[in-house]
Amino acid sequence: MLSKKLISLFILLIIVFAGYGQPAEKEYGYFIFPINPGVRNTLAGTMGELRSSHFHTGIDIRTGGRQGIPVVAAADGYVSRIRVSGGGYGNALYITHPNGKVTVYGHLKEFNEKIDPFVLKSQYAKKSFELNLFPKPDQFKVYQGDTIALSGNSGSSGGPHLHFDIRDENQNLLNPLHYGFKEVIDTRVPFAKTIAVVPFNIDSRVEGIFGRSEYRLSEKGNEYVLEDTIHAIGELGLELYAWDKMNGTRFKTGINKFDFKLNNKQVFEQVIDTWSFANARSFYQHINYEVLRVTGQRFHKLYIENGNTLKFYNQLPDSGHFIIEEGKHYNASISLTDS
User: Fold this and answer.
1) What local confidence, expressed as pLDDT, does residue 18 receive?
2) Within 10 Å of residue 43's Cβ, how many Cβ atoms?
3) What values do phi and psi take at 120, rounded to 5?
4) 162 by DSSP, 3-state: which?
5) Considering 36, 149, 186, 262, which has the largest number of Cβ atoms within 10 A of its Cβ?
C-alpha cells in the first residue's frame, strides 16, 4: 500500500510521435539509389536501429528475397577498398567520391567483370578466401550508375539484401536517408509499447518500491499514453521500448530522434545523424542490457549512463535524470521522429 507521502505525487506521461520529411542538405540528391534507381523500394533496416549487439550503420535495401540484382555506383568515384569475408558485410565494395564521402555496398553475391578477376587472382596469390584490398585510385574508376556488383546474401546476412552506408572522410557514419532517396516512402510514425521508470538512489520510489517498473502504453492515433498516473518520488530516469514502422515492410526500423520533456523543460535529447565506430561499444550503455538478455526487448535509455561515449546526445546538465518532489504533479512528453 502506498504511503500518504507517495499518493500525493504522480507523473503523467503522454507520448507524442512525429514523422518528418527529409532535411534539405548541401548534397541532397548527390547520390542515386544503388538498386533500381527511380523505382520504389522498401527497407529492412535503417541507421541507428537497435540490433542484438550494435547500432545498425546504414540502410538495408530489400531485394524481394532474390540475389543477382545489379548494384550501381551511387556517384562517380573509384573503388578504394574491396573486402571479402565469411562474416560481417561478406563481399563488400567501398567507393570514394570527389566530395570526400565513401559509399559502402555489402552482402554482395559477386563483383563486376573488372573487379572479380582481380579478387580471384588476389585470393590465389594470398592463398586466402578472406581479403582486405586497397586498390589504387586509378585502378577501378566508376561513374554514377555503373554496375559494380550483383546483390547477394554473403557474410552475416539473414536474407538477400543490399547493405548501404555513406561515410565522411574520417569514416564517420552518415544517415543515407538524408540524401533525398525518393525510392523510399515512409508516412508511418514510430510505435511505442512500454515505458519503464528507473529509480537512481536509495530514497527514490516508484509506486512505493525501490525498483524498475514497466507500464504498457495505449495507442490513441499518433499518440501513446498511460491510462493511469504513476506515483513516484526522488531521482528517476525513463526507458522506452519503441521502434519505427515503415510503409510496405514488416521490419522494425530505427528511431533517430528522442526528445523528453518534463513540465515543458527538456530533460533528454538524442539525435542520430552521424556516429563513429570508435564509440560502438557504448551500445550496451544506451540500452538496458539486462532486460535484453532476459526478454529480448531493446529499451532505449532516456538518460546517459556512466561510460557511455556516444556523441549523439544533447549534453544537458542532468543527463536525463530528473527529480520528483513531494506534493507536486508532473507532465512528461516524449516525441519520437524517424528519418
Assistant:
1) 53
2) 25
3) -60, -45
4) strand
5) 149
Determine if residue 234 is left, alpha or beta; phi over 0 gives left, psi from -120 to 50 gives alpha, anything else beta.
left
H or E element, residue 7: helix 4-7
H or E segment and range at residue 275: strand 274-275
Q: pTM score, two decimals? A: 0.88
CA–CA distance, 240 with 300 (Å, rounded to integer): 5
Length of the chain: 339
Q: What distance in Å separates the CA atoms of residue 103 and residue 216, rounded to the nearest whole number? A: 40
Phi, psi of 7 (to 5 degrees): -60, -30
Spell out a b/e string for 148-184, using b for 16 or more CB atoms within 10 Å of the CB, else e. bbbbbbbbebeebbbbbbbbeeeeebbbbbbbbbebb
What's the rounded Cα separation, in Å, for the pair 281 and 302? 18
Q: Note the pLDDT tens digit of each residue in 98-144.
A: 999 999 999 999 999 999 999 999 999 999 999 999 999 999 999 99
Cell of 112: 563486376
3-state DSSP percent of the chain in helix, strand and coil, to 5: 10, 40, 50
**Under 8 Å between Cβ of 61 and 164:** yes
Helices (H), ranges, 181-318? 283-286, 289-295
